[in-house]
Protein backbone atom coordinates (compact mmCIF):
# COMPACT_ATOMS: atom_id res chain seq x y z
CA UNK A 1 0.00 0.00 0.00
CA UNK A 2 2.78 2.37 -0.90
CA UNK A 3 0.68 5.01 -2.56
CA UNK A 4 1.82 8.55 -3.11
CA UNK A 5 -0.66 11.37 -3.04
CA UNK A 6 -0.87 12.24 -6.74
CA UNK A 7 -4.46 13.48 -6.49
CA UNK A 8 -5.66 15.81 -9.20
CA UNK A 9 -9.09 15.96 -7.58
CA UNK A 10 -9.29 19.10 -5.44
CA UNK A 11 -12.97 18.86 -4.60
CA UNK A 12 -15.79 16.34 -4.41
CA UNK A 13 -19.37 16.70 -5.59
CA UNK A 14 -21.95 15.61 -3.04
CA UNK A 15 -25.02 14.14 -4.72
CA UNK A 16 -27.11 14.77 -1.62
CA UNK A 17 -30.44 13.19 -0.81
CA UNK A 18 -32.39 14.18 -3.91
CA UNK A 19 -32.07 16.09 -7.19
CA UNK A 20 -35.69 17.27 -7.08
CA UNK A 21 -35.91 21.02 -6.40
CA UNK A 22 -39.30 20.63 -4.68
CA UNK A 23 -37.97 17.93 -2.37
CA UNK A 24 -34.88 19.96 -1.61
CA UNK A 25 -36.99 22.88 -0.35
CA UNK A 26 -38.95 20.47 1.83
CA UNK A 27 -35.72 18.86 3.07
CA UNK A 28 -34.26 22.29 3.83
CA UNK A 29 -37.19 23.20 6.09
CA UNK A 30 -37.50 19.72 7.64
CA UNK A 31 -33.82 19.19 8.46
CA UNK A 32 -33.42 22.79 9.68
CA UNK A 33 -36.10 22.07 12.29
CA UNK A 34 -34.61 18.66 13.14
CA UNK A 35 -31.11 20.10 13.51
CA UNK A 36 -32.30 22.98 15.71
CA UNK A 37 -34.26 20.53 17.89
CA UNK A 38 -31.23 18.23 18.15
CA UNK A 39 -28.86 20.98 19.25
CA UNK A 40 -31.34 22.57 21.67
CA UNK A 41 -32.41 19.22 23.13
CA UNK A 42 -28.90 17.99 23.80
CA UNK A 43 -27.76 21.42 25.01
CA UNK A 44 -30.69 21.50 27.43
CA UNK A 45 -29.63 18.14 28.88
CA UNK A 46 -26.03 19.34 29.33
CA UNK A 47 -27.14 22.59 31.03
CA UNK A 48 -29.73 20.82 33.19
CA UNK A 49 -27.26 18.24 34.50
CA UNK A 50 -24.59 20.89 35.07
CA UNK A 51 -26.95 23.21 36.99
CA UNK A 52 -28.78 20.68 39.16
CA UNK A 53 -26.73 19.33 42.12
CA UNK A 54 -28.92 16.24 42.57
CA UNK A 55 -28.01 15.16 39.01
CA UNK A 56 -24.27 15.21 39.77
CA UNK A 57 -24.02 11.42 39.75
CA UNK A 58 -21.91 9.11 37.53
CA UNK A 59 -24.85 8.14 35.29
CA UNK A 60 -25.85 11.74 34.56
CA UNK A 61 -22.22 12.83 34.15
CA UNK A 62 -21.83 10.22 31.40
CA UNK A 63 -25.22 11.19 29.94
CA UNK A 64 -24.21 14.86 29.68
CA UNK A 65 -21.05 13.85 27.81
CA UNK A 66 -23.11 11.64 25.49
CA UNK A 67 -25.35 14.64 24.75
CA UNK A 68 -22.30 16.76 23.94
CA UNK A 69 -21.01 14.08 21.53
CA UNK A 70 -24.46 13.75 19.93
CA UNK A 71 -24.66 17.51 19.48
CA UNK A 72 -21.24 17.44 17.79
CA UNK A 73 -22.15 14.38 15.68
CA UNK A 74 -25.21 16.20 14.36
CA UNK A 75 -23.07 19.25 13.52
CA UNK A 76 -20.11 17.83 11.57
CA UNK A 77 -22.07 17.55 8.31
CA UNK A 78 -25.71 18.60 8.82
CA UNK A 79 -25.25 22.41 8.54
CA UNK A 80 -23.51 21.96 5.17
CA UNK A 81 -26.20 19.54 4.02
CA UNK A 82 -28.88 22.10 4.91
CA UNK A 83 -27.02 24.87 3.06
CA UNK A 84 -26.54 22.58 0.03
CA UNK A 85 -30.31 22.17 -0.33
CA UNK A 86 -30.34 25.79 -1.52
CA UNK A 87 -27.34 25.32 -3.82
CA UNK A 88 -27.35 23.89 -7.31
CA UNK A 89 -23.65 22.94 -7.15
CA UNK A 90 -22.93 20.87 -4.04
CA UNK A 91 -19.17 20.68 -3.63
CA UNK A 92 -16.72 20.13 -0.81
CA UNK A 93 -12.96 20.60 -0.94
CA UNK A 94 -10.62 17.63 -0.57
CA UNK A 95 -9.50 18.99 2.82
CA UNK A 96 -13.10 19.52 3.88
CA UNK A 97 -13.94 15.97 2.89
CA UNK A 98 -11.05 14.54 4.94
CA UNK A 99 -12.11 16.73 7.87
CA UNK A 100 -15.64 15.31 7.77
CA UNK A 101 -14.29 11.76 7.76
CA UNK A 102 -12.02 12.56 10.70
CA UNK A 103 -14.78 14.05 12.87
CA UNK A 104 -17.25 11.29 11.97
CA UNK A 105 -14.86 8.59 13.19
CA UNK A 106 -13.60 10.67 16.12
CA UNK A 107 -17.13 11.20 17.44
CA UNK A 108 -18.30 7.72 16.49
CA UNK A 109 -15.36 6.08 18.27
CA UNK A 110 -15.85 8.28 21.34
CA UNK A 111 -19.57 7.47 21.47
CA UNK A 112 -18.92 3.72 21.29
CA UNK A 113 -16.61 3.87 24.32
CA UNK A 114 -19.05 6.15 26.17
CA UNK A 115 -21.99 3.80 25.54
CA UNK A 116 -19.88 0.92 26.89
CA UNK A 117 -19.03 3.08 29.92
CA UNK A 118 -22.73 3.77 30.52
CA UNK A 119 -23.42 0.05 30.31
CA UNK A 120 -20.67 -0.60 32.87
CA UNK A 121 -22.15 2.10 35.11
CA UNK A 122 -25.58 0.41 35.05
CA UNK A 123 -24.00 -3.01 35.63
CA UNK A 124 -22.19 -1.78 38.75
CA UNK A 125 -25.27 0.11 40.00
CA UNK A 126 -27.54 -2.94 39.73
CA UNK A 127 -25.25 -5.91 40.24
CA UNK A 128 -22.85 -4.36 42.80
CA UNK A 129 -24.89 -1.58 44.46
CA UNK A 130 -22.90 -1.54 47.72
CA UNK A 131 -19.67 -0.81 45.85
CA UNK A 132 -21.19 1.57 43.29
CA UNK A 133 -19.86 4.87 44.63
CA UNK A 134 -16.47 3.31 45.29
CA UNK A 135 -16.10 1.89 41.79
CA UNK A 136 -17.79 4.73 39.89
CA UNK A 137 -15.81 7.48 41.59
CA UNK A 138 -15.37 10.90 40.00
CA UNK A 139 -11.85 9.88 38.97
CA UNK A 140 -13.22 6.77 37.23
CA UNK A 141 -15.92 8.76 35.42
CA UNK A 142 -13.50 11.42 34.19
CA UNK A 143 -11.09 8.67 33.16
CA UNK A 144 -13.79 6.93 31.10
CA UNK A 145 -14.68 10.18 29.31
CA UNK A 146 -11.01 10.96 28.59
CA UNK A 147 -10.53 7.38 27.37
CA UNK A 148 -13.49 7.75 25.00
CA UNK A 149 -11.89 10.80 23.34
CA UNK A 150 -8.46 9.15 23.16
CA UNK A 151 -9.95 6.06 21.50
CA UNK A 152 -11.92 8.30 19.14
CA UNK A 153 -8.81 10.21 18.11
CA UNK A 154 -6.76 7.06 17.49
CA UNK A 155 -9.62 5.44 15.60
CA UNK A 156 -10.07 8.50 13.37
CA UNK A 157 -6.34 8.73 12.68
CA UNK A 158 -6.19 5.01 11.83
CA UNK A 159 -8.93 5.50 9.24
CA UNK A 160 -7.12 8.45 7.66
CA UNK A 161 -3.60 7.03 7.82
CA UNK A 162 -3.83 5.62 4.29
CA UNK A 163 -6.83 7.51 2.96
CA UNK A 164 -5.14 10.93 2.81
CA UNK A 165 -2.45 9.52 0.50
CA UNK A 166 -4.81 7.77 -1.91
CA UNK A 167 -4.58 9.12 -5.48
CA UNK A 168 -7.87 10.59 -6.69
CA UNK A 169 -7.59 11.30 -10.40
CA UNK A 170 -10.96 10.52 -11.93
CA UNK A 171 -14.56 10.48 -10.72
CA UNK A 172 -15.30 12.77 -7.80
CA UNK A 173 -19.03 12.29 -7.11
CA UNK A 174 -19.91 11.05 -3.64
CA UNK A 175 -23.37 9.48 -3.51
CA UNK A 176 -24.29 10.96 -0.14
CA UNK A 177 -24.77 14.27 1.65
CA UNK A 178 -21.35 14.04 3.34
CA UNK A 179 -17.99 12.34 2.83
CA UNK A 180 -18.35 8.83 4.20
CA UNK A 181 -15.19 6.73 4.07
CA UNK A 182 -16.60 3.67 2.22
CA UNK A 183 -17.90 5.95 -0.55
CA UNK A 184 -14.78 8.11 -0.83
CA UNK A 185 -12.19 5.33 -1.09
CA UNK A 186 -14.14 3.81 -4.01
CA UNK A 187 -13.25 6.93 -6.02
CA UNK A 188 -9.50 6.31 -5.71
CA UNK A 189 -7.50 5.40 -8.82
CA UNK A 190 -6.02 2.26 -7.23
CA UNK A 191 -7.32 -1.03 -5.91
CA UNK A 192 -8.60 -0.33 -2.40
CA UNK A 193 -9.55 -3.89 -1.46
CA UNK A 194 -6.92 -4.08 1.31
CA UNK A 195 -8.02 -0.73 2.69
CA UNK A 196 -11.61 -1.95 2.62
CA UNK A 197 -10.67 -5.05 4.60
CA UNK A 198 -8.82 -2.83 7.09
CA UNK A 199 -11.93 -0.65 7.38
CA UNK A 200 -14.09 -3.73 8.06
CA UNK A 201 -11.74 -4.89 10.81
CA UNK A 202 -11.38 -1.49 12.49
CA UNK A 203 -14.90 -0.09 12.07
CA UNK A 204 -17.42 -2.75 11.12
CA UNK A 205 -16.20 -5.64 13.25
CA UNK A 206 -15.33 -3.44 16.25
CA UNK A 207 -18.87 -2.00 16.15
CA UNK A 208 -20.34 -5.50 15.81
CA UNK A 209 -18.27 -6.96 18.67
CA UNK A 210 -19.02 -3.99 20.95
CA UNK A 211 -22.73 -4.29 20.19
CA UNK A 212 -22.73 -8.01 21.04
CA UNK A 213 -20.87 -7.32 24.31
CA UNK A 214 -23.37 -4.60 25.17
CA UNK A 215 -26.28 -6.96 24.46
CA UNK A 216 -24.71 -9.53 26.79
CA UNK A 217 -24.12 -6.86 29.43
CA UNK A 218 -27.70 -5.60 29.37
CA UNK A 219 -28.99 -9.19 29.36
CA UNK A 220 -27.08 -9.83 32.59
CA UNK A 221 -28.49 -6.62 34.04
CA UNK A 222 -32.01 -7.59 32.95
CA UNK A 223 -31.72 -11.02 34.58
CA UNK A 224 -30.53 -9.37 37.80
CA UNK A 225 -33.38 -6.86 37.74
CA UNK A 226 -35.94 -9.62 37.13
CA UNK A 227 -34.97 -11.17 40.46
CA UNK A 228 -36.27 -8.06 42.24
CA UNK A 229 -39.69 -6.46 42.14
CA UNK A 230 -39.14 -3.24 44.07
CA UNK A 231 -39.77 0.27 42.75
CA UNK A 232 -36.03 0.83 42.52
CA UNK A 233 -35.73 -2.21 40.27
CA UNK A 234 -38.50 -0.90 38.04
CA UNK A 235 -36.67 2.41 37.74
CA UNK A 236 -33.44 0.55 36.93
CA UNK A 237 -35.24 -1.47 34.26
CA UNK A 238 -36.65 1.70 32.70
CA UNK A 239 -33.19 3.34 32.67
CA UNK A 240 -31.53 0.27 31.15
CA UNK A 241 -34.21 -0.11 28.49
CA UNK A 242 -33.62 3.52 27.48
CA UNK A 243 -29.86 2.89 27.32
CA UNK A 244 -30.34 -0.25 25.22
CA UNK A 245 -32.66 1.58 22.82
CA UNK A 246 -29.96 4.22 22.25
CA UNK A 247 -27.32 1.51 21.77
CA UNK A 248 -29.45 -0.25 19.14
CA UNK A 249 -30.23 2.97 17.26
CA UNK A 250 -26.54 3.91 17.13
CA UNK A 251 -24.91 0.56 16.38
CA UNK A 252 -27.50 -0.81 13.93
CA UNK A 253 -26.82 1.58 11.02
CA UNK A 254 -23.03 1.64 11.71
CA UNK A 255 -22.77 -2.15 11.55
CA UNK A 256 -24.83 -2.35 8.36
CA UNK A 257 -22.74 0.28 6.56
CA UNK A 258 -19.24 -0.66 7.72
CA UNK A 259 -19.46 -4.48 7.76
CA UNK A 260 -20.27 -4.45 4.02
CA UNK A 261 -18.27 -1.48 2.66
CA UNK A 262 -17.77 -3.07 -0.77
CA UNK A 263 -21.49 -3.18 -1.53
CA UNK A 264 -23.84 -0.27 -2.06
CA UNK A 265 -27.37 -0.74 -0.80
CA UNK A 266 -30.22 1.70 -1.54
CA UNK A 267 -30.87 1.95 2.19
CA UNK A 268 -27.29 3.11 2.96
CA UNK A 269 -28.16 6.78 2.45
CA UNK A 270 -31.18 6.47 4.74
CA UNK A 271 -29.06 4.81 7.41
CA UNK A 272 -26.44 7.57 7.11
CA UNK A 273 -29.16 10.17 7.74
CA UNK A 274 -30.42 8.11 10.66
CA UNK A 275 -27.20 7.70 12.63
CA UNK A 276 -25.82 11.20 11.96
CA UNK A 277 -29.04 13.21 12.35
CA UNK A 278 -31.96 11.28 13.84
CA UNK A 279 -30.10 9.28 16.49
CA UNK A 280 -28.65 12.45 18.10
CA UNK A 281 -32.21 13.85 18.09
CA UNK A 282 -33.81 10.73 19.55
CA UNK A 283 -31.26 10.28 22.35
CA UNK A 284 -32.39 13.28 24.44
CA UNK A 285 -36.03 12.38 23.78
CA UNK A 286 -35.52 8.78 24.93
CA UNK A 287 -33.65 9.76 28.07
CA UNK A 288 -35.93 12.61 29.11
CA UNK A 289 -39.25 10.92 28.36
CA UNK A 290 -38.31 7.93 30.51
CA UNK A 291 -36.49 9.75 33.30
CA UNK A 292 -38.57 11.66 35.84
CA UNK A 293 -35.52 13.25 37.49
CA UNK A 294 -34.32 14.80 34.22
CA UNK A 295 -37.83 15.96 33.23
CA UNK A 296 -38.36 17.57 36.63
CA UNK A 297 -34.96 19.29 36.50
CA UNK A 298 -35.62 20.55 32.97
CA UNK A 299 -38.92 22.10 34.04
CA UNK A 300 -37.22 23.61 37.06
CA UNK A 301 -34.43 25.09 34.91
CA UNK A 302 -36.91 26.44 32.34
CA UNK A 303 -39.01 28.01 35.09
CA UNK A 304 -35.89 29.63 36.57
CA UNK A 305 -34.84 31.04 33.18
CA UNK A 306 -38.30 32.44 32.40
CA UNK A 307 -38.58 33.90 35.89
CA UNK A 308 -35.22 35.68 35.56
CA UNK A 309 -36.21 37.07 32.16
CA UNK A 310 -39.50 38.32 33.57
CA UNK A 311 -37.64 39.99 36.43
CA UNK A 312 -35.21 41.63 33.96
CA UNK A 313 -38.09 43.11 31.96
CA UNK A 314 -39.92 44.38 35.04
CA UNK A 315 -39.43 48.19 35.39
TrEMBL record:
Domain G-protein coupled receptors family 1 profile: 41-287
Keyword Thylakoid set for record: no
InterPro entries the UniProt entry points to: GPCR_Rhodpsn, GPCR_Rhodpsn_7TM, Olfact_rcpt, Olfactory_Receptors
Predominant place of localization: membrane
Regions crossing the membrane: 25-47, 59-78, 98-120, 141-162, 193-224, 236-260, 272-289
Any GO CC annotation of this UniProt entry: plasma membrane
Subcellular location, record wording: Cell membrane; Membrane
Keyword terms: Cell membrane, Disulfide bond, G-protein coupled receptor, Membrane, Olfaction, Receptor, Sensory transduction, Transducer, Transmembrane, Transmembrane helix
Membrane topology annotation: Multi-pass membrane protein
A GO term, aspect molecular function: G protein-coupled receptor activity
SUPFAM superfamilies listed in its UniProt record: Family A G protein-coupled receptor-like (SSF81321)
Family, as annotated: Belongs to the G-protein coupled receptor 1 family.
Name used for this protein in its record: Olfactory receptor
Name of encoding gene: LOC116538764
